[in-house]
């Protein structure tokens, strides 16, 4: 949170933050969440891990193969992650430049097909559903073009949990 | 990142860079989606907790009435104000009711240009009806009464549990809560086809309240029921209950649309609701019921109940002593709580229900009479009974002495519990079965209970509704329980989809989703989350605003030196303790508190900035305003109960009485002068009476900031 940058975040503050985010998904009110919600929780704490990073975290905190994660296991692991600033936010310019790399002809925009190909075939590929949703957000015109400068501005990144 | 893109770069490096770029974009986008999901979840929690708190509130109010009924002498005026809501099966036998509800005396003027119906109801008739409603026409009261009359006659012949078969390659369609949202019903019919003998339907309760076309939905559903009685099945929901309707808008809708015949229509609907079947079973394998089950659910018991005796299920029935009043008492549990004798005064004769007539309250002299009635009586009774907060279940000591009486009470209590559990319960992930404190009625039941109850009845699936789900449907308990909810955009445009189930002889449910309103379909994820969020925050701000005195008091406890500042942590703790909604205040804080000073909140400033306008009323006592805001739903409920002739107007005396009732319920003191001032300022057109709707309008909170 912006105003806290003036103070060093104490461990107790961090614990509170993690616990609050965790409890949002603790439907049974027994300090347990479904392992599939871990990625959302980690993201919500201002981190930008890759899918590989997330798999690692989940492997560390999941109770065997139950599919559940207990707060007692999650808290120390996540605290360390936050104290180390392990997955810092990506600066806007980097995202922009990433788009520019994909925009080989320097057109200032990407075609729907181009973006889809990259997102679903390279890196840590999107599922069809993820791709559909991304296009729904980024394709704001009828010509099937993604004006990525606008997109980056629109979605923001600020790394601050709003 | 950040290298140039010279053409001399080897191909491999270019590929790597592209892959790294893709990775980065994917990471960034997934973070964005997660943030949206968190916001959506918070928003959902807000709406749901406010909704359930409202239900709980209403049940508390109704329990209070029940308490009044049981513990006040028949002569008390407060009791008489509300006693009529407990008198359901007045005097008559059904032939007399038939006469009362008869449509024949109602003339349709030539000027009427709505649809004309002929009976018996035909498919053409229902189609005409749907067309008319689509064009926002209103059906004449004569036809309304006719449809309702026929429906009532039909429902009386139906069992509590309908057994349905889906053999012969007929697929059945099951719909959940509709809550007066006509658009959703029409959308379902459009996508799925109209009900017919080839296309059977089950509608699983909660047809009314909240949305503004509850009556139209009922008329269409009843119309199809009349045309295809073997293929259209209606289950009762917890909102098919006239007490609940008082608070959640259906009563208001009917009275608004039918000024003259509304009262009769509502009365007939009361009967119809009580005659609605409680559940359906498909092929002896799939149970369909509105709320759910509990560990004591027993369908054999349910099938034998006289369901129509439970007109409202909000409170357990109390058996009254059977006296020989000699005029064919209706045996059994009545919502009509006939108070035969008071606790202390043994000499009063049984109240003859025959003699009940609408009392005009205009002649009552208030003031002195009231000052020594409600509060004092309540205090005395509480001391005698030895309890404080809840009005809960109480047994009158004298009636208990008769063992036969006690046994009958027990039986009716058990039956009542079966019904409440079916209509009000919610599933929970933990094992076990506990009372549903959040809603105030029914249970929370766990996966073990599902196993046990389904097993005991040789069933394989439970389909229920009652809870709004983001995707319109949701499985739980190892896919043995399926929730289906058919009112899309329930909390706000874009908040959720609706869904319905199609099921063939294989008994495998397929869920089809939809969302009414073209605009909501075109909204992106971000937009719909944003919109729902704004709406939820507005609702939340209203709650904060109406509790401002309590909030300030709570904040001050963390600010002993009176600096006017408290930490964010304390802000969250204090707010949670006052509102008791169980929301994640730390997460919501950035949306609610825009300015902080080194991590501290200037709470007085913040409260001022909640920017909700107050009504332009001159009152001597400002705390009464806050009470009004906090309790405006309860107030409205009480008003509507008191307004026995459904005129929409109440007199000053009635207004005064209402306040006295409410203040006893809330256990607060309100001075007579404050009430009088308030009454006078509420009489907007200065004619000596208060228009309920105008009064409630004055309390609609408006966010000033939304106008800038």
UniProtKB/TrEMBL annotation, chain A:
Give a single Pfam family match.
EF-hand_7
| Keywords of the record | Calcium, Metal-binding, Repeat
InterPro entries tied to this protein: EF-hand-dom_pair, EF_Hand_1_Ca_BS, EF_hand_dom
MF terms in GO: calcium ion binding
The yes or no answer to whether the keyword Metal-binding is present is yes
For the keyword Repeat, the answer is: yes
GO annotations of cellular component type: organelle
Domain EF-hand, by residue range, is: 13-48, 90-125
Protein name stated in the entry: EF-hand calcium binding domain 2
Native source species: Nothobranchius furzeri
Gene that specifies this protein = efcab2
UniProtKB/TrEMBL annotation, chain B:
UniProt xrefs under PROSITE patterns? EF_HAND_1, EF_HAND_2, IQ, SER_THR_PHOSPHATASE
- EC number per UniProt: 3.1.3.16
Q: For this protein, what reaction is catalysed?
A: O-phospho-L-threonyl-[protein] + H2O = L-threonyl-[protein] + phosphate; O-phospho-L-seryl-[protein] + H2O = L-seryl-[protein] + phosphate
Which Gene Ontology biological process is one annotated for this entry?
Answer: negative regulation of MAPK cascade
Classification via CDD domains: EFh (cd00051), IQCD (cd23767)
Q: Which cofactor does it need?
A: Mn(2+); Mg(2+)
Query: What GO MF terms are annotated?
Result: calcium ion binding; Hsp90 protein binding; iron ion binding; manganese ion binding; protein serine/threonine phosphatase activity
Record-linked InterPro entries = Calcineurin-like_PHP (IPR004843), EF-hand-dom_pair (IPR011992), EF_Hand_1_Ca_BS (IPR018247), EF_hand_dom (IPR002048), Metallo-depent_PP-like (IPR029052), PPP_dom (IPR013235), PPP_phosphatase (IPR051134), Ser/Thr-Pase_EF-hand_contain (IPR012008)
Q: Which UniProt keywords apply?
A: Calcium, Hydrolase, Magnesium, Manganese, Metal-binding, Protein phosphatase, Repeat
Q: Where is the EF-hand domain?
A: 630-665, 670-705
Q: What class of enzyme is it?
A: hydrolase
Give the source's domain of life in one word. Answer: Eukaryota
Q: Which family does it belong to?
A: Belongs to the PPP phosphatase family.
Q: What is this protein called?
A: Serine/threonine-protein phosphatase with EF-hands
**Which gene codes for it?**
PPEF2
């Amino acid at each position: 949170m912006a105003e806290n940058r003036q103070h060093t975040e104490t461990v107790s503050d961090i614990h509170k933050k993690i616990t609050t985010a965790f409890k949002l998904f603790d439907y049974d009110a027994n300090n347990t969440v479904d392992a599939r919600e871990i990625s959302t929780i980690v993201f919500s704490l201002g981190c930008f891990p890759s899918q590989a990073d997330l798999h690692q975290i989940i492997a560390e905190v999941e109770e065997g193969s139950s599919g559940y994660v207990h707060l007692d296991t999650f808290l120390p692991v996540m605290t360390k992650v936050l104290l180390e600033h392990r997955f810092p936010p990506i600066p806007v310019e980097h995202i922009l430049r990433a788009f520019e790399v994909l925009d080989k002809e320097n057109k200032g925009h990407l075609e729907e097909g181009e973006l889809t190909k990259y997102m679903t075939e390279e890196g840590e590929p999107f599922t069809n559903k993820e791709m559909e949703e991304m296009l729904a957000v980024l394709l704001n015109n009828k010509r099937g073009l993604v004006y990525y400068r606008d997109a980056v501005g629109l979605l923001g990144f600020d790394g601050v949990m709003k | 990142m950040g290298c140039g893109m010279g053409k001399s770069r080897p191909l491999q490096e270019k590929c790597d860079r592209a892959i790294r770029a893709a990775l980065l974009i994917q990471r960034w986008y997934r973070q964005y989606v997660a943030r949206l999901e968190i916001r959506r979840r918070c928003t959902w929690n807000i709406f749901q907790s406010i909704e359930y708190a409202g239900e709980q509130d209403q049940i508390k109010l109704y329990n209070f009435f029940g308490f009044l009924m049981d513990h006040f002498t028949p002569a008390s005026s407060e009791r008489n104000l509300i006693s009529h809501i407990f008198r359901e099966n007045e005097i008559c036998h059904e032939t007399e009711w038939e006469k009362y509800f008869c449509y024949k005396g109602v003339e349709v003027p030539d000027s009427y240009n709505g649809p004309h119906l002929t009976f018996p109801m035909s498919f053409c008739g229902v189609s005409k009806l749907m067309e008319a409603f689509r064009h926002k026409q209103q059906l004449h009261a004569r036809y309304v009464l006719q449809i309702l009359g026929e429906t009532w006659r039909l429902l009386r012949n139906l069992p509590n549990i309908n057994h349905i078969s889906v053999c012969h390659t007929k697929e059945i369609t099951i719909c959940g809560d509709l809550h007066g949202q006509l658009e959703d019903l029409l959308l379902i019919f459009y996508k799925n086809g109209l009900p017919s003998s080839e296309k059977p339907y089950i509608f699983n309760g909660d047809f009314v309240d909240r949305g503004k076309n509850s009556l139209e939905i009922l008329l269409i559903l009843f119309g199809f029921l009349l045309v295809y009685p073997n293929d259209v099945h209606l289950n009762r929901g917890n909102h098919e209950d006239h007490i609940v309707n008082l608070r959640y808008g259906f009563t208001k809708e009917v009275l608004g649309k039918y000024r003259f015949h509304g009262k009769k229509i509502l009365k007939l609907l009361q009967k119809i609701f009580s005659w609605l079947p409680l559940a359906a079973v498909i092929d002896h394998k799939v149970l369909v019921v509105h709320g759910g089950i509990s560990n004591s659910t027993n369908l054999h018991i349910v099938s034998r109940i006289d369901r129509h005796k439970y007109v409202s299920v909000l409170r357990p029935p109390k058996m009254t002593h059977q006296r020989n009043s000699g005029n064919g008492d209706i045996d059994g549990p009545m919502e009509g709580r006939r108070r035969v004798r008071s606790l202390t005064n043994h000499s009063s004769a049984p109240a003859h229900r025959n003699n009940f007539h609408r009392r005009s309250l205009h002649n009552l002299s208030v003031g002195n009479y009231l000052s020594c009635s409600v509060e004092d009586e309540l205090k005395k009774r509480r001391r005698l009974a030895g309890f404080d907060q809840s009005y809960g279940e109480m047994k009158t000591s004298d009636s208990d002495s008769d063992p036969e009486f006690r046994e009958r009470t027990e039986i009716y209590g058990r039956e009542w519990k079966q019904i409440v559990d079916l209509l009000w319960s919610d599933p929970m992930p933990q094992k076990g079965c506990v009372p549903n404190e959040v809603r105030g009625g029914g249970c929370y039941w766990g996966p073990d209970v599902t196993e046990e109850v389904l097993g005991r009845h040789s069933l394989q699936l439970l389909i229920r509704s009652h809870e709004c789900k983001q995707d319109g449907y949701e499985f739980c308990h190892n896919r043995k329980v399926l929730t289906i909810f058919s009112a899309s955009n329930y909390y706000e445009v874009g908040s959720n989809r609706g869904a319905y189930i199609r099921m063939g002889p294989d008994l495998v449910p397929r869920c089809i989703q939809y969302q009414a309103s073209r605009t909501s379909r075109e909204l992106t994820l971000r937009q719909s989350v944003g919109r729902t969020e704004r709406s939820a925050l507005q609702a939340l701000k209203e709650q904060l605003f109406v509790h401002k005195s309590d909030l300030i008091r709570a904040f001050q406890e963390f600010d002993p030196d009176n600096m006017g500042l408290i930490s964010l942590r304390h802000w969250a703790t204090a707010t949670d303790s006052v509102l008791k909604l169980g929301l994640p205040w730390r997460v919501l804080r950035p949306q609610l508190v825009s300015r902080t000073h080194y991590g501290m909140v200037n709470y007085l400033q913040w409260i001022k900035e909640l920017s909700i306008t107050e009504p332009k009323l001159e009152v001597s006592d400002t705390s009464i305003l806050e009470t009004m805001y906090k309790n405006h739903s309860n107030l409205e409920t009480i008003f509507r109960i008191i307004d026995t002739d459904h005129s929409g107007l109440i007199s000053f005396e009635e207004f005064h009485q209402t306040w006295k009732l409410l203040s006893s319920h809330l256990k607060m003191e309100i001075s007579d002068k404050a009430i009088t001032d308030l009454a006078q300022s509420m009489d907007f057109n200065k004619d000596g009476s208060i228009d309920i709707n105008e009064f409630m309008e004055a309390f609609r909170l408006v966010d000033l900031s939304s106008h800038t």
